Amino acid sequence: MAGGYHNPFPSSLRHECEKACEILEAFLNPSVPNSTATQILQNAQGLAIISTVKGAFMGSVRFGSGILVARLDDGSWSAPSAIVVGGVGFGGQVGVEFTNFIFVLPRKSSVRTFAQLGSLTLTTNISLALGPMGRCGEVGLGASLHGLGALWAMSKTNGFFGGFSVELATFIENGSSNQKLYQKKLTAAQLLNGEIKPPDDAKMLMQCLSHKAFYSRRHRVPDPELPSDPSTATALELTSGAENQLPVELSTRGALPVGLPSESLSSPLEGRETSAREA
User: What pLDDT is attached to residue 206?
Assistant: First the structure.
């Protein structure tokens, strides 16, 4: 079901996390590691992953549910917050479609906007779906009491639908689902700021987000056991060992290291042999 229909109606946060993971996997192509989708996801500051149903005849109505996560300062991802979305649109459109969306939030300001209860979005949408094959493009602007934030969407569509529209939608925090999972009342802002660790029920989603496709070089956390400077690593390899050998002794036979005179290549062993002969 990774690339097909998903239930657009709200359910437990655990189910929403599993659904989000399947949607993310449907957009990743392991055979093309540097695809456009991967590059976009690597630089995202936040992701709203939702499934929706939409019906239209000139005007349209859309409803859906999903989760919202944000990138933290150390490059990792926050605990998820459950959200629901509803909206209306106007334009030349007709049909019914089920759509899996990844709304990409490219800046921290976008995340702050969508972390607020009842943020509004104004988007332009063009969509075409014939059975299990369909595509939908969407770009827009979100607004809340904390300002404006840009967003755009990656999506896959199922159904029978065609048209172009301008839509007004609202993203609402699903507080009941959050409270049921986290066992206390929390705001989306608290979750997205990293104040709460991801729960066990979100383990599948967090494992999915730990894939390298969601981390650019500047977001990857270095291994503290490894030197950060490659030249340092080389120097450590050359000078380590019981003999504590000099770097020049590791050169191939007949090749002189650049900048060193030939006399510097004589080893301590050769000196001892000379002394023995003289004795």
Answer: 93
Taking CA 111 as the corner, what is the angle to CA 105 and CA 115, rounded to the nearest 5 degrees? Answer: 130
DSSP assignment of 207-269, as one string? HHHTSGGG--GGGSPPPTTS-SSHHHHHHHHHH-STT---GGGGSPTT-PPTT--GGGG--HH
Contact 202, 69 (CB under 8 A): no
* Alpha carbon distance 16, 18 (integer Å): 5
Give 63's strand partners. 53, 86
Which residue in 144, 66, 75, 154 sits closest to 112, CA to CA?
144
Q: Is the pTM of this model over 0.90?
A: no
Residue 135 has pLDDT above 70, yes or no: no
Distance CA 112, CA 188 (A): 10
Report the alpha-carbon distance of residue 76 to residue 221 in Å, rounded: 8
Specify the pLDDT at position 222.
42
Reading the block at residue 181, the tokens are 């999972």
| Tens digit of each residue's pLDDT (9 = 90 or more) over 163-185 | 888 888 888 888 888 999 899 99
The residue to which tokens 């079901």 are assigned: 1
